[in-house]
Amino acid sequence: MDAFYASAERRQNPALAGLPIIVGADPKEGKGRGVVAGCSYEARKFGVHSAQPISRAYRLCPQAVYLRPNFALYEEISSRIMDIFRSYSEKLEPMSLDEAFLDLSDKAADFAEATQIARGIKEDVKAREGLTCSVGVAPNKAIAKIASDFQKPDGLTTVTPDQAQAFLRPLPVSRISGVGKKTTEILERVGIKTIGDLASYPAGRIVELFGKWGIALWQIANGIDEAPVVTSYDIKSISTEFTFEQDIEDRKIVIETLDRQAKEVHARAIQDGFLWRTIGLKLRFEDFTTFTRAKSRSDYTNRLDVVQSSVRSLFNEFEKDPRKIRLVGVRLSNLRRTDLSQETLLAWSERK
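RE: above sequence
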């Protein structure tokens, strides 16, 4: 989806049309803590973007309309959009409230037909929800993700297998999902600026720099991604990760980001009808050292406050670590599917 949070807010309040919108923490006249959760394209023209400290966003665009996230609204719209996606393919893997992969292998005979399906999806979302989305059609998930960002907003980019290398090679390495400012700086220090540079670099050297993640980076640069689209029937966990624009020292910003992630994974779990027993935390420090921690319950739950309190408890172990943090993630696992029962309805009523 294009600028999903901001677009959803604008749809609710048409008076916001044409105005820069920033969804996230309270800016408090440039002294607020927290980060930008999402922003409109009008705000992006001033240099504002997701994962940016809200204080910097305010300095760049003080005239913007600042709104706190309304996850009840976003998940309601998201649920209807995911239903539209499912009408085109039951092989659907939601990645967040505003992004999903679809496997069209059984629906399209070739890339031309897949592109027509993608165009139909875009038209349906616009007609039913009044919102635009950008689609990438490609041989695998990694290239499809890059292609979906290629012509935003309201874009449609198709990359066939024989076009993949030519499409990827000139793009900056930052176009690869998960490659943020810090990773880009490390790659540039060894002379890697484009995806083509990365593709031709010795794989072993990339692994020395980034460990196991380096293998995936090098493979994606070479157009290789064997990861399947995982449908809700196959889902073993629901997670989200967030890479900060700059490594963060302020733990209050980290905690607020974790709270927002807890709300997002909770919304996705409720949307897909899951209860869960295990809540997990992922942290990556400035030196790329990565830790995962988890806490399991004896019973299943679908309560948001349980997710938030568990994540905060898990983070306590690292709160006094002097290193800056570059990535945080929240995961729900030990899932059990349930119908829209009284328990599920209770969780929705608590959220609203």
